[in-house]
Amino acid sequence: MKNYEGMWKELGLDVELHKAILADLDKKFEAYVLSQKNRPGKMGYFDDVILGAHGARVAEIIDHKKRGGKFIGTFCIYVPEEIVLALDVIPVALCGGTALSIPYAERTFPRNICPLLKSTLGLSFSKTCAFAPIKDMAVGETTCDAKKKTWDFLSKKVNFHVMEVPQKKRDKDLELWRDEVVQFKERLEGLTGNKLDGEKLSEAVRLMNRKRSALARLHAFRKEALPPISGLDFLVVMQGALIDDTRRFWANLEDLNAELEDRVRKGHGVAGDRAKRLVVSGCPSVLGNWKLHHLLESSGAIVICDESCTGTRYFEHMVEEVQGGVDGQLLAIADRYMKIDCSCFSPNEERITNIVKLARDYKADGVVQYILQYCHTYNIEAIAVASALKKGGLPSLKIETDYSEEDAGQLRLRIEAFLESLEKHVKP
Ligand code: BJ8
Fold first, then answer.
1. Domain locations along the chain
2. Which residue minimizes the CA distance to atom 3 of ligand 1?
3. Using CA positions, which residue lies closest to atom 11 of ligand 1?
4. Does residue 371 line the site of ligand 1, with CB under 6 A?
5. Confidence of residue 140 (pLDDT cuts 50, 70, 90)
6. Cα–Cα distance for residue pair 372/403, rounded to 1 Å
7. Which of 79, 116, 125, 220 lies at 20 to 30 Å from 317 by C-alpha?
8. pLDDT digit string (tens) for 145-166?
9. H-run or E-run covering 160
10. 382 within ligand 1 shell (Cβ under 6 A)
11. What is the CATH number that goes with domain 5-209?
Protein backbone atom coordinates (compact mmCIF):
# COMPACT_ATOMS: atom_id res chain seq x y z
CA MET A 1 0.00 0.00 0.00
CA LYS A 2 1.22 3.53 -0.82
CA ASN A 3 3.03 5.45 1.91
CA TYR A 4 1.28 8.68 2.95
CA GLU A 5 3.67 9.80 5.67
CA GLY A 6 4.76 12.87 3.69
CA MET A 7 1.13 13.96 3.28
CA TRP A 8 0.38 13.48 6.99
CA LYS A 9 3.45 15.50 7.89
CA GLU A 10 2.38 18.31 5.58
CA LEU A 11 -1.06 18.26 7.20
CA GLY A 12 0.58 18.84 10.57
CA LEU A 13 -0.40 15.49 12.06
CA ASP A 14 1.41 13.76 14.89
CA VAL A 15 2.76 11.20 12.44
CA GLU A 16 4.07 8.71 15.00
CA LEU A 17 0.84 8.61 17.00
CA HIS A 18 -1.19 8.48 13.79
CA LYS A 19 0.85 5.51 12.61
CA ALA A 20 0.33 3.76 15.96
CA ILE A 21 -3.45 4.26 15.75
CA LEU A 22 -3.56 3.02 12.15
CA ALA A 23 -1.40 0.01 13.05
CA ASP A 24 -3.87 -0.88 15.79
CA LEU A 25 -6.84 -0.52 13.40
CA ASP A 26 -5.09 -2.60 10.74
CA LYS A 27 -4.30 -5.29 13.28
CA LYS A 28 -7.92 -5.49 14.42
CA PHE A 29 -9.19 -5.43 10.84
CA GLU A 30 -6.89 -8.30 9.97
CA ALA A 31 -7.78 -10.33 13.07
CA TYR A 32 -11.55 -9.76 12.95
CA VAL A 33 -12.47 -9.11 9.33
CA LEU A 34 -9.82 -10.40 6.94
CA SER A 35 -9.43 -13.67 8.84
CA GLN A 36 -13.06 -14.66 8.22
CA LYS A 37 -13.47 -17.73 6.05
CA ASN A 38 -15.53 -17.83 2.91
CA ARG A 39 -15.76 -14.08 2.26
CA PRO A 40 -17.26 -12.77 -1.00
CA GLY A 41 -14.46 -11.89 -3.43
CA LYS A 42 -15.98 -8.45 -4.10
CA MET A 43 -15.40 -7.47 -0.47
CA GLY A 44 -11.85 -6.66 -1.56
CA TYR A 45 -12.96 -3.22 -2.74
CA PHE A 46 -14.60 -2.40 0.60
CA ASP A 47 -11.58 -3.65 2.56
CA ASP A 48 -9.50 -1.17 0.57
CA VAL A 49 -11.95 1.63 1.39
CA ILE A 50 -11.46 0.97 5.12
CA LEU A 51 -7.72 0.45 4.94
CA GLY A 52 -7.30 3.48 2.68
CA ALA A 53 -9.56 5.81 4.66
CA HIS A 54 -6.75 7.86 6.16
CA GLY A 55 -4.45 7.74 3.14
CA ALA A 56 -5.91 7.31 -0.34
CA ARG A 57 -9.25 8.94 0.53
CA VAL A 58 -7.59 11.96 2.11
CA ALA A 59 -5.29 12.37 -0.93
CA GLU A 60 -8.35 12.16 -3.21
CA ILE A 61 -10.11 14.90 -1.23
CA ILE A 62 -7.01 17.12 -1.35
CA ASP A 63 -7.05 16.74 -5.16
CA HIS A 64 -10.74 17.64 -5.21
CA LYS A 65 -9.98 20.79 -3.23
CA LYS A 66 -7.16 21.70 -5.59
CA ARG A 67 -9.74 21.65 -8.38
CA GLY A 68 -11.83 24.14 -6.40
CA GLY A 69 -14.16 21.71 -4.61
CA LYS A 70 -15.00 21.79 -0.91
CA PHE A 71 -15.03 19.15 1.80
CA ILE A 72 -17.13 18.89 4.97
CA GLY A 73 -16.94 16.60 7.98
CA THR A 74 -20.18 15.23 9.44
CA PHE A 75 -21.13 13.27 12.56
CA CYS A 76 -24.61 12.01 11.89
CA ILE A 77 -26.85 10.58 9.19
CA TYR A 78 -29.32 13.48 9.53
CA VAL A 79 -27.06 15.63 7.35
CA PRO A 80 -28.76 15.61 3.90
CA GLU A 81 -26.12 14.26 1.55
CA GLU A 82 -28.12 15.17 -1.57
CA ILE A 83 -27.59 18.90 -0.97
CA VAL A 84 -23.91 18.39 -0.22
CA LEU A 85 -23.26 16.38 -3.38
CA ALA A 86 -25.28 18.71 -5.60
CA LEU A 87 -22.97 21.56 -4.58
CA ASP A 88 -19.89 19.51 -5.48
CA VAL A 89 -18.92 19.17 -1.83
CA ILE A 90 -17.52 15.90 -0.48
CA PRO A 91 -19.02 14.73 2.83
CA VAL A 92 -17.19 12.31 5.11
CA ALA A 93 -18.41 11.07 8.49
CA LEU A 94 -15.69 11.89 11.00
CA CYS A 95 -16.98 9.69 13.84
CA GLY A 96 -14.17 7.90 15.67
CA GLY A 97 -14.12 4.16 16.29
CA THR A 98 -10.79 3.80 18.07
CA ALA A 99 -10.15 3.61 21.80
CA LEU A 100 -6.61 4.93 21.44
CA SER A 101 -7.63 8.55 20.91
CA ILE A 102 -10.03 8.65 23.88
CA PRO A 103 -7.48 9.73 26.56
CA TYR A 104 -6.79 12.89 24.52
CA ALA A 105 -10.47 13.86 24.74
CA GLU A 106 -10.65 13.06 28.44
CA ARG A 107 -8.00 15.68 29.16
CA THR A 108 -10.60 18.35 28.40
CA PHE A 109 -13.98 16.62 28.28
CA PRO A 110 -15.73 14.59 30.98
CA ARG A 111 -15.07 10.85 30.99
CA ASN A 112 -18.75 10.02 31.18
CA ILE A 113 -19.69 10.80 27.60
CA CYS A 114 -20.01 8.13 24.94
CA PRO A 115 -16.88 6.55 23.40
CA LEU A 116 -17.95 7.52 19.87
CA LEU A 117 -17.83 11.20 20.69
CA LYS A 118 -14.69 10.96 22.83
CA SER A 119 -12.89 8.99 20.15
CA THR A 120 -13.87 11.61 17.54
CA LEU A 121 -12.71 14.51 19.68
CA GLY A 122 -9.54 12.70 20.73
CA LEU A 123 -8.52 12.16 17.10
CA SER A 124 -8.84 15.86 16.48
CA PHE A 125 -7.16 16.99 19.73
CA SER A 126 -4.22 14.61 19.30
CA LYS A 127 -3.66 15.68 15.68
CA THR A 128 -4.34 12.22 14.34
CA CYS A 129 -7.38 12.91 12.17
CA ALA A 130 -6.13 13.50 8.63
CA PHE A 131 -9.52 14.90 7.61
CA ALA A 132 -9.56 17.62 10.28
CA PRO A 133 -6.96 19.96 8.74
CA ILE A 134 -8.49 19.77 5.24
CA LYS A 135 -12.17 20.26 6.08
CA ASP A 136 -13.77 23.51 5.00
CA MET A 137 -16.56 23.14 7.52
CA ALA A 138 -17.92 20.63 10.05
CA VAL A 139 -21.62 19.95 10.47
CA GLY A 140 -23.02 18.87 13.80
CA GLU A 141 -26.57 18.25 14.92
CA THR A 142 -28.51 18.38 18.16
CA THR A 143 -29.26 14.69 18.56
CA CYS A 144 -27.94 14.24 22.09
CA ASP A 145 -26.77 16.46 24.94
CA ALA A 146 -23.14 15.40 24.62
CA LYS A 147 -23.07 16.35 20.96
CA LYS A 148 -24.93 19.64 21.44
CA LYS A 149 -22.52 20.92 24.05
CA THR A 150 -19.52 19.65 22.12
CA TRP A 151 -20.59 21.64 19.08
CA ASP A 152 -20.79 24.79 21.24
CA PHE A 153 -17.17 24.17 22.17
CA LEU A 154 -15.99 23.39 18.63
CA SER A 155 -17.92 26.23 17.00
CA LYS A 156 -15.56 28.65 18.71
CA LYS A 157 -12.53 26.97 17.16
CA VAL A 158 -13.46 25.90 13.61
CA ASN A 159 -15.94 26.72 10.87
CA PHE A 160 -18.98 24.86 12.18
CA HIS A 161 -22.64 24.55 11.29
CA VAL A 162 -25.19 23.02 13.64
CA MET A 163 -28.48 21.59 12.38
CA GLU A 164 -31.22 21.51 14.96
CA VAL A 165 -32.84 18.09 14.84
CA PRO A 166 -36.22 18.36 16.61
CA GLN A 167 -37.02 15.93 19.41
CA LYS A 168 -40.63 15.29 18.46
CA LYS A 169 -42.40 14.62 15.17
CA ARG A 170 -45.37 17.01 15.23
CA ASP A 171 -46.22 19.26 12.29
CA LYS A 172 -44.47 22.22 13.89
CA ASP A 173 -41.33 20.09 14.36
CA LEU A 174 -41.38 19.14 10.71
CA GLU A 175 -41.66 22.83 9.86
CA LEU A 176 -38.62 23.58 12.01
CA TRP A 177 -36.64 20.79 10.36
CA ARG A 178 -37.59 21.92 6.86
CA ASP A 179 -36.29 25.34 7.78
CA GLU A 180 -33.07 23.80 9.12
CA VAL A 181 -32.58 22.04 5.79
CA VAL A 182 -33.02 25.32 3.90
CA GLN A 183 -30.56 27.06 6.24
CA PHE A 184 -28.06 24.26 5.71
CA LYS A 185 -28.39 24.71 1.96
CA GLU A 186 -27.79 28.44 2.34
CA ARG A 187 -24.74 27.85 4.52
CA LEU A 188 -23.29 25.49 1.91
CA GLU A 189 -24.05 27.96 -0.87
CA GLY A 190 -22.10 30.53 1.12
CA LEU A 191 -19.23 28.10 1.58
CA THR A 192 -18.99 27.16 -2.08
CA GLY A 193 -20.03 30.48 -3.59
CA ASN A 194 -22.47 28.55 -5.81
CA LYS A 195 -26.25 28.54 -6.02
CA LEU A 196 -27.91 25.16 -5.68
CA ASP A 197 -28.94 24.05 -9.15
CA GLY A 198 -32.24 22.17 -9.63
CA GLU A 199 -30.83 19.74 -12.19
CA LYS A 200 -27.84 18.91 -10.04
CA LEU A 201 -30.05 18.43 -7.01
CA SER A 202 -32.31 16.00 -8.90
CA GLU A 203 -29.24 14.11 -10.06
CA ALA A 204 -27.94 13.88 -6.47
CA VAL A 205 -31.36 12.68 -5.26
CA ARG A 206 -31.33 9.91 -7.87
CA LEU A 207 -27.77 8.93 -6.99
CA MET A 208 -28.46 8.77 -3.25
CA ASN A 209 -31.66 6.79 -3.86
CA ARG A 210 -29.68 4.33 -5.98
CA LYS A 211 -27.12 4.01 -3.21
CA ARG A 212 -29.86 3.39 -0.63
CA SER A 213 -31.62 0.83 -2.83
CA ALA A 214 -28.37 -1.07 -3.36
CA LEU A 215 -27.70 -1.09 0.39
CA ALA A 216 -31.25 -2.25 1.07
CA ARG A 217 -30.75 -5.08 -1.44
CA LEU A 218 -27.49 -6.05 0.25
CA HIS A 219 -29.22 -6.06 3.63
CA ALA A 220 -32.13 -8.14 2.29
CA PHE A 221 -29.80 -11.00 1.22
CA ARG A 222 -29.35 -11.61 4.91
CA LYS A 223 -32.95 -12.80 5.16
CA GLU A 224 -31.87 -16.00 3.42
CA ALA A 225 -31.81 -19.23 5.44
CA LEU A 226 -28.10 -19.38 4.54
CA PRO A 227 -26.99 -15.71 4.49
CA PRO A 228 -24.32 -15.18 1.80
CA ILE A 229 -22.48 -12.48 3.77
CA SER A 230 -21.44 -12.18 7.41
CA GLY A 231 -22.65 -9.41 9.69
CA LEU A 232 -19.08 -8.18 10.00
CA ASP A 233 -18.70 -7.84 6.25
CA PHE A 234 -22.02 -6.05 6.01
CA LEU A 235 -20.74 -3.65 8.67
CA VAL A 236 -17.54 -3.05 6.71
CA VAL A 237 -19.65 -2.06 3.68
CA MET A 238 -21.73 0.31 5.83
CA GLN A 239 -18.67 1.92 7.35
CA GLY A 240 -17.40 2.47 3.80
CA ALA A 241 -20.75 4.03 2.83
CA LEU A 242 -20.07 6.88 5.26
CA ILE A 243 -16.67 7.83 3.84
CA ASP A 244 -16.33 6.69 0.23
CA ASP A 245 -17.10 8.47 -3.04
CA THR A 246 -20.83 7.90 -3.56
CA ARG A 247 -20.85 6.93 -7.23
CA ARG A 248 -17.85 4.61 -7.03
CA PHE A 249 -19.20 3.03 -3.84
CA TRP A 250 -22.56 2.37 -5.47
CA ALA A 251 -21.00 0.77 -8.59
CA ASN A 252 -18.90 -1.57 -6.44
CA LEU A 253 -21.86 -2.39 -4.27
CA GLU A 254 -23.83 -3.47 -7.36
CA ASP A 255 -20.96 -5.87 -8.15
CA LEU A 256 -21.02 -7.26 -4.63
CA ASN A 257 -24.79 -7.71 -4.82
CA ALA A 258 -24.45 -9.61 -8.11
CA GLU A 259 -21.94 -11.94 -6.46
CA LEU A 260 -24.25 -12.45 -3.48
CA GLU A 261 -27.17 -13.23 -5.77
CA ASP A 262 -25.08 -15.93 -7.35
CA ARG A 263 -24.11 -17.27 -3.93
CA VAL A 264 -27.76 -17.45 -2.92
CA ARG A 265 -28.61 -19.31 -6.15
CA LYS A 266 -25.93 -21.85 -5.35
CA GLY A 267 -26.96 -22.13 -1.68
CA HIS A 268 -23.56 -20.84 -0.62
CA GLY A 269 -23.84 -19.39 2.92
CA VAL A 270 -21.20 -18.04 5.29
CA ALA A 271 -22.49 -19.84 8.38
CA GLY A 272 -24.07 -23.23 8.99
CA ASP A 273 -27.85 -23.50 9.30
CA ARG A 274 -27.49 -24.07 13.06
CA ALA A 275 -25.95 -20.62 13.64
CA LYS A 276 -28.26 -18.44 15.74
CA ARG A 277 -29.61 -15.50 13.77
CA LEU A 278 -29.28 -12.18 15.58
CA VAL A 279 -30.46 -8.63 15.02
CA VAL A 280 -28.11 -5.95 16.35
CA SER A 281 -30.07 -2.89 17.35
CA GLY A 282 -29.08 0.49 18.75
CA CYS A 283 -25.95 2.62 18.52
CA PRO A 284 -23.81 2.80 15.39
CA SER A 285 -20.49 0.93 14.99
CA VAL A 286 -18.30 3.30 12.99
CA LEU A 287 -14.98 2.66 11.26
CA GLY A 288 -12.56 1.01 13.68
CA ASN A 289 -15.30 -0.50 15.84
CA TRP A 290 -15.88 -4.15 14.94
CA LYS A 291 -16.02 -5.30 18.55
CA LEU A 292 -19.61 -6.49 19.00
CA HIS A 293 -20.06 -8.11 15.58
CA HIS A 294 -16.78 -9.94 16.02
CA LEU A 295 -17.73 -11.18 19.49
CA LEU A 296 -21.14 -12.38 18.31
CA GLU A 297 -19.98 -14.11 15.15
CA SER A 298 -16.88 -15.66 16.67
CA SER A 299 -19.17 -17.11 19.35
CA GLY A 300 -21.07 -19.05 16.68
CA ALA A 301 -23.95 -16.67 15.83
CA ILE A 302 -24.59 -14.75 12.62
CA VAL A 303 -25.77 -11.15 12.58
CA ILE A 304 -28.54 -11.01 9.96
CA CYS A 305 -29.86 -7.49 10.51
CA ASP A 306 -28.48 -4.18 11.78
CA GLU A 307 -31.01 -1.70 13.12
CA SER A 308 -28.66 1.24 13.53
CA CYS A 309 -27.13 4.16 11.66
CA THR A 310 -24.55 1.72 10.32
CA GLY A 311 -27.52 -0.36 9.21
CA THR A 312 -31.13 0.14 8.21
CA ARG A 313 -31.47 3.68 9.56
CA TYR A 314 -29.01 4.89 6.91
CA PHE A 315 -30.80 3.51 3.85
CA GLU A 316 -34.48 3.13 4.83
CA HIS A 317 -36.85 5.51 3.02
CA MET A 318 -36.16 7.06 -0.36
CA VAL A 319 -36.31 10.76 -1.16
CA GLU A 320 -39.32 11.39 -3.36
CA GLU A 321 -38.19 12.76 -6.73
CA VAL A 322 -40.08 16.01 -7.21
CA GLN A 323 -40.39 17.95 -10.44
CA GLY A 324 -40.48 21.73 -10.49
CA GLY A 325 -37.44 23.24 -8.86
CA VAL A 326 -35.24 23.38 -5.84
CA ASP A 327 -37.80 24.39 -3.19
CA GLY A 328 -40.12 21.41 -3.67
CA GLN A 329 -37.20 19.02 -3.83
CA LEU A 330 -35.75 20.43 -0.61
CA LEU A 331 -39.06 19.76 1.15
CA ALA A 332 -39.03 16.16 -0.03
CA ILE A 333 -35.45 15.79 1.20
CA ALA A 334 -36.33 17.22 4.60
CA ASP A 335 -39.32 14.89 4.88
CA ARG A 336 -37.22 11.82 4.16
CA TYR A 337 -34.61 12.64 6.79
CA MET A 338 -37.30 13.37 9.36
CA LYS A 339 -38.41 9.72 9.04
CA ILE A 340 -35.13 8.51 10.59
CA ASP A 341 -36.02 7.01 13.96
CA CYS A 342 -33.00 7.87 16.12
CA SER A 343 -33.59 7.50 19.84
CA CYS A 344 -33.23 11.27 20.17
CA PHE A 345 -36.97 11.43 19.34
CA SER A 346 -39.54 11.12 22.06
CA PRO A 347 -41.82 9.36 21.95
CA ASN A 348 -40.22 7.00 19.45
CA GLU A 349 -42.81 4.26 19.01
CA GLU A 350 -42.00 3.75 15.35
CA ARG A 351 -38.48 2.57 16.18
CA ILE A 352 -39.80 0.06 18.70
CA THR A 353 -42.39 -1.30 16.27
CA ASN A 354 -39.77 -1.41 13.53
CA ILE A 355 -37.33 -3.52 15.58
CA VAL A 356 -39.99 -6.15 16.28
CA LYS A 357 -40.94 -6.19 12.59
CA LEU A 358 -37.32 -6.50 11.45
CA ALA A 359 -36.69 -9.36 13.88
CA ARG A 360 -39.72 -11.20 12.47
CA ASP A 361 -38.98 -10.43 8.81
CA TYR A 362 -35.39 -11.60 9.17
CA LYS A 363 -36.46 -14.72 11.13
CA ALA A 364 -34.21 -13.77 14.01
CA ASP A 365 -33.64 -16.06 16.96
CA GLY A 366 -32.89 -13.05 19.14
CA VAL A 367 -32.00 -9.38 19.32
CA VAL A 368 -28.87 -7.86 20.83
CA GLN A 369 -29.31 -4.25 21.90
CA TYR A 370 -26.01 -2.48 21.44
CA ILE A 371 -25.58 0.49 23.74
CA LEU A 372 -22.46 2.60 23.76
CA GLN A 373 -21.61 3.47 27.34
CA TYR A 374 -23.25 6.76 28.45
CA CYS A 375 -25.58 6.93 25.45
CA HIS A 376 -28.64 7.63 27.56
CA THR A 377 -31.24 7.82 24.83
CA TYR A 378 -30.57 4.34 23.43
CA ASN A 379 -29.97 2.96 26.89
CA ILE A 380 -33.27 4.11 28.31
CA GLU A 381 -35.20 3.29 25.16
CA ALA A 382 -33.76 -0.23 25.51
CA ILE A 383 -36.26 -0.92 28.31
CA ALA A 384 -39.24 -0.34 26.00
CA VAL A 385 -37.54 -2.22 23.17
CA ALA A 386 -36.88 -5.27 25.38
CA SER A 387 -40.44 -5.30 26.62
CA ALA A 388 -41.91 -5.06 23.08
CA LEU A 389 -39.63 -7.89 21.98
CA LYS A 390 -40.65 -10.01 24.95
CA LYS A 391 -44.30 -9.45 24.13
CA GLY A 392 -43.56 -10.60 20.59
CA GLY A 393 -41.86 -13.76 21.91
CA LEU A 394 -38.39 -12.56 20.89
CA PRO A 395 -35.53 -12.99 23.38
CA SER A 396 -33.12 -10.09 23.72
CA LEU A 397 -29.84 -9.22 25.39
CA LYS A 398 -28.60 -5.73 26.21
CA ILE A 399 -24.90 -5.09 25.86
CA GLU A 400 -23.57 -1.82 27.14
CA THR A 401 -19.92 -1.34 26.37
CA ASP A 402 -17.19 1.04 25.25
CA TYR A 403 -14.34 0.71 22.75
CA SER A 404 -11.88 -1.01 25.09
CA GLU A 405 -11.10 -4.73 25.00
CA GLU A 406 -11.16 -5.03 28.78
CA ASP A 407 -14.67 -6.44 28.99
CA ALA A 408 -14.34 -8.74 25.96
CA GLY A 409 -14.00 -11.91 28.04
CA GLN A 410 -16.98 -11.07 30.20
CA LEU A 411 -19.08 -10.11 27.18
CA ARG A 412 -18.21 -13.35 25.45
CA LEU A 413 -19.48 -15.31 28.46
CA ARG A 414 -22.77 -13.40 28.44
CA ILE A 415 -23.14 -13.87 24.68
CA GLU A 416 -22.47 -17.60 24.94
CA ALA A 417 -25.04 -17.92 27.72
CA PHE A 418 -27.55 -15.99 25.59
CA LEU A 419 -26.91 -18.22 22.58
CA GLU A 420 -27.36 -21.28 24.76
CA SER A 421 -30.67 -19.94 26.04
CA LEU A 422 -31.79 -19.48 22.43
CA GLU A 423 -31.23 -23.22 21.85
CA LYS A 424 -34.01 -23.91 24.36
CA HIS A 425 -36.28 -21.11 23.23
CA VAL A 426 -39.25 -22.18 21.13
CA LYS A 427 -40.13 -19.61 18.47
CA PRO A 428 -43.78 -18.46 18.64
S1 BJ8 B 1 -29.07 9.42 13.98
S2 BJ8 B 1 -27.56 7.32 16.48
S3 BJ8 B 1 -25.64 8.94 13.93
S4 BJ8 B 1 -27.14 10.78 16.58
S5 BJ8 B 1 -23.94 7.09 20.42
S6 BJ8 B 1 -23.11 10.55 19.93
S7 BJ8 B 1 -26.53 9.54 20.12
S8 BJ8 B 1 -24.44 9.50 22.99
S9 BJ8 B 1 -24.28 8.63 17.24
FE10 BJ8 B 1 -26.04 8.92 16.17
FE11 BJ8 B 1 -27.17 10.49 14.35
FE12 BJ8 B 1 -28.70 9.24 16.20
FE13 BJ8 B 1 -27.52 7.89 14.26
FE14 BJ8 B 1 -24.93 10.73 21.17
FE15 BJ8 B 1 -25.54 8.17 21.53
FE16 BJ8 B 1 -23.00 8.91 21.40
FE17 BJ8 B 1 -24.54 8.95 19.25
1. 5-209
2. 76
3. 76
4. no
5. very high
6. 8
7. 116
8. 999 999 999 999 999 999 999 9
9. strand 160-163
10. no
11. 3.40.50.11890
